[in-house]
Design brief:
This protein has nine helices and seven strands. The strands form two sheets. The chain has a five-stranded parallel sheet with strand order 2-5-1-6-7, sandwiched between helices. A two-stranded antiparallel ribbon has the order 3-4. The relative contact order is 0.16. The C terminus is likely disordered.
């Protein structure tokens, strides 16, 4: 496992798992949101695809993001595709909890600084309403695209709960001896 694409709805722990994998596998981590959303606004699709393709043209990477429209340049180039497919009630609970933390100033991030009560909960395109809408519309499409990706020989890992994520991490984690030898390989000079 050296080329990992990871996706799932908001508040499922994509970033946490991607950072852990990056450390565990000693491969660079990229959040596709960081590429798409620039200070000048979102990149045009063609440029977004070009930049994502450049990242996945390398030997090892961890890429997270919900952009199935990039499946051919991200998912199909992966050796492992991880789908965090949590139940909707859990996702909504986590979105509310995270939004309340951000609105209270307990979390500092670009998203937290832009978040308002309306954007989180009340607007027509609030985080909550968008999560519900996307869950209902995207999930069947994701299932088809994941099956297509698996058909290309990519290993698919579908994790349906935080407990499954924890168990998968335990099975995937390198042992202490392997971690020490890996660290030694990467800290020695030329």
């Amino acid at each position: 496992m050296r080329r990992v694409a990871l996706f799932g709805p908001p508040a499922t722990g994509k970033s946490t798992l991607a950072r852990w994998l990056s450390t565990e596998l000693n491969e660079p981590h990229t959040d596709l949101d960081d590429i798409l959303f620039t200070p000048e606004g979102p990149l045009p699709l063609e440029e977004f695809r070009r930049q994502a393709a450049a990242i996945t043209a390398t030997d090892g990477w961890i890429v997270e993001g919900n952009f199935s429209k990039l499946a051919d340049v991200v998912w199909h180039r992966a050796d492992t595709l991880i789908w965090l497919d949590f139940p909707l009630p859990l996702i909504l609970y986590r979105i509310v909890r995270r939004s309340l933390r951000q609105l209270a100033g307990r979390e500092d991030s670009a998203q937290a600084r832009r978040l308002t009560w309306s954007a989180a909960f009340f607007a027509r395109r609030s985080l909550l309403r968008t999560a519900i809408r996307k869950y209902r519309t995207n999930r069947p499409r994701y299932a088809r695209q994941v099956a297509e990706t698996a058909g290309l020989g990519v290993e698919v890992v579908r994790l349906r709960s935080p407990r499954e994520v924890r168990r998968w991490r335990q099975r995937t984690a390198k042992g202490p001896a392997e971690s020490r030898s890996r660290a030694a390989r990467h800290t020695t000079g030329p």
